[in-house]
Amino acid sequence: MSDLLLLGLIGGLTLLLLLTLLAFARYSGLLAGVAVSAGSPPFRNVTVAYKFHVGPYSETGRLFTESCSVCPRLRSIAVYYDNPHMVPPEKCRCAVGSILSEGEESPSSELLQLYQKFGFKVFSFPAPSHVVTATFPYTTALSIWLATRRVHPALDAYIKERKLCAHPRLEIYQQDQIYFMCPLARQGDFYVPEVKETERKGRGPAEASDAQMDGTGVDTLSDASSVSLEVGPGSRETSAATLSPGVSSRSWDDSDTRSEHSYSESGASGSSFEELDLEGEGPLGEPRLSPEAEPLGAPKWPRELSTPEKGEE
Fold first, then answer.
1. Which residue of 1, 56, 129, 182 has the fewest C-beta atoms within 10 A of its own C-beta?
2. Which residue windows does the record flag with biased composition (Polar residues) (predicted)?
């Protein structure tokens, strides 16, 4: 009799544990729906402090922890430039850090100096007129794991189905939500200067080996056929030059930032903003703008992850 009672007790505890785990997973977003839409961005132009990383995305957790340690009250942000399904893990590029300010507000000099003291660089991202976006609950650490396996496939399917050019891929951690965003315009303004450096280093040897010399010793490759990675003056509307002497505000043309297997290959040319279903809400719960409310015709081109421990708000 005592053996049956013990087995019953063990069975009851096991069932209770399974129900607890199931409830925890559900609370973390296991059954949450993933709705992908196109419209206005979930935030305005922002100034961020970041560190650049080249390597497996699974190694970026330390960068999130480091940025949150500097100032836990700030929102975390990550920008992923390469598709991990197409690019070797050791070559994947991303920028991880914190959002220092949003909109017309400028970050304080004390905050800038604090992040720069710990080796972070400062850059500004604009608010593009149109983005592909999705959200996912951010209630536990498990939410991050679930989000990377549910939201990114949904974004890939949405972009591929509509043949869109949406890159790079951003994640913003704000209170109890994770915002995923893929710009449909001004993509080049989301590429930090280090991306240009990796492009230059990667293309330099290839261009040198492919250069063909004619009989007179003159390079037969014309200037028009080569890829230019020079910075285009005035290419950014949002400049962080006035914030700090160490702040970078330079950019380059979008066509120079698309690596061979970057997220820019997720879609293809031919789609227009008018074909998208612009719906949902804009920054901080504001109604999204209709297509008529913003200028259209932005240029378009043919064509998982470790994240922060939840910071204290």
1. 1
2. 236-247
